[in-house]
Amino acid sequence: MCPGEPRSSERCTYCSYSEHLPRLSYIKRGRTLTDFILPILFCGVAFLYSSVGLGGGSSYTALMAIFGISFHIIPTTSLTLNLIVTFIGMINFWRKGFGRLDLVSPFLVTSIPMAYLAGTLKLPEGVFQILLLTTLIFVVIRIYAFKDLRFSFRLSGIPKWILIFGLGAVLGFVAGSVGIGGGVYLVPLIIMFGLGSEKEAVAAGTLFVWVNSLAGVIAKQAETFNIDFILPLAGAVIVGGFGGSYLGSAKYKAKTIQRVMGIIIIVAIGLLLRKML
User: Fold this and answer.
1) pLDDT profile of the chain (277 residues), mean per 10
2) Which of 273, 224, 14, 13 is nearest to 121 (CA)?
3) How far apart are CA 105 and CA 248, in angstroms?
4) How many CB atoms are located within 10 Å of the residue 146 CB?
5) Is residue 203 within 8 Å of residue 94, measured between CB atoms?
6) DSSP notation for 18-73
7) CA 237 distance to own-chain centroid
8) What sections of the chain are H helices per DSSP?
9) 37, 58, 164, 255: which is deepest, by most CB within 10 A?
10) Do 81 and 207 meet the contact criterion of CB atoms below 8 Å apart?
């Protein structure tokens, strides 16, 4: 899928090789099994994540790292897929009246510039993998350590704004650097701190992830965007995103889906650790 055949002395920009991993290349040599597996996996991920109002960036990023896709194009690909899936989620959740601009806009004040700033950074592969692994571990901790969100902390005044601006900045940086939109963190925290209801939090999460993903993609620009690689994945997440978002906003319970999602992330963490070691 690369624009051209790499010279023998170079690594292809769009793939990474390891003697411990299958040869997973995106060059002009016909399609591999990976070309068919990834869209299927991404369709399932989009279905699960969109059902709880999320984009799926954490799983897209992890799966691409596991399958040996170059870390140069992973963030841009994940952010682009986030744009697609969360846009579908916005249509479903905001159309039902759960959207609140006054809830999500303060988080965007700091998240947008940080997502753009992080998107301009050129991270070494080792730093990218460590940052990705750390982010995924926190995702799992969030899911299983805070399973019951019926309790909440009520914040007001200065502490409330410190939380909002600080959280927005951190999640924006994560979005721009590794391609994870941050909705998996933002949604439960909105509920826990009494800033909005569960459905309002999900609706806020879709817009938050979409805007941060857009900022990250703009910062990355076209230098790490491979249209041949991303088109099949985009088609897959559109199918999964429409199905999951409809069922999630109408029928499914968010807790059930998040626990399933947690299992996927745990598997991804294990495989990523194996690759790093």
Assistant:
1) 42 42 39 80 86 77 80 85 86 82 92 90 80 82 65 67 89 85 80 80 88 87 73 92 72 62 75 74
2) 224
3) 24
4) 14
5) yes
6) -TTS-----SSS---HHHHHHHHHHHHHHHHHHTTT---HHHHHHHHHHTTB-TTT
7) 12
8) 33-50, 57-66, 74-95, 101-119, 125-145, 157-178, 183-192, 198-220, 227-250, 254-276
9) 58
10) no
* Token pair belonging to 111: 């998240």
CB 72 within 8 A of CB 178: no
Distance CA 204, CA 171 (A): 14
pTM for the model: 0.75
Phi-psi domain of 182 (left: phi exceeds 0; alpha: psi -120 through 50; beta: other): left
179 neighbors 216 (Cβ within 8 angstroms): yes
DSSP designation for 224: G
Strand partners, 58: none
Query: How many angstroms separate the CA atoms of 222 and 150, rounded?
Result: 44
Task: Say which residue the tokens 């016909």 belong to.
Answer: 30
Nearest to 181 by CA among 170, 191, 189, 166: 170
Paired strand residues for 69: 15
Encoded tokens for 55: 């984009």
* Other residues' Cβ atoms within 10 Å of the Cβ of residue 169: 19
Bridge partners of 15, per DSSP, are: 69
Q: What is the DSSP letter of 8?
A: T
Q: List the structure tokens of 229.
A: 């690689």
Could you give the CA distance from residue 203 to residue 92 in angstroms, rounded to a whole number?
9
Tokens of 219: 């910062």
CA atoms within 13 A on the CB side of 214: 13
Rg of the chain on CA atoms, in Å: 18
Q: What is residue 10's predicted lDDT score, i.e. its pLDDT?
A: 41
For residue 214, give the nearest of 166, 175, 174 by alpha carbon: 175
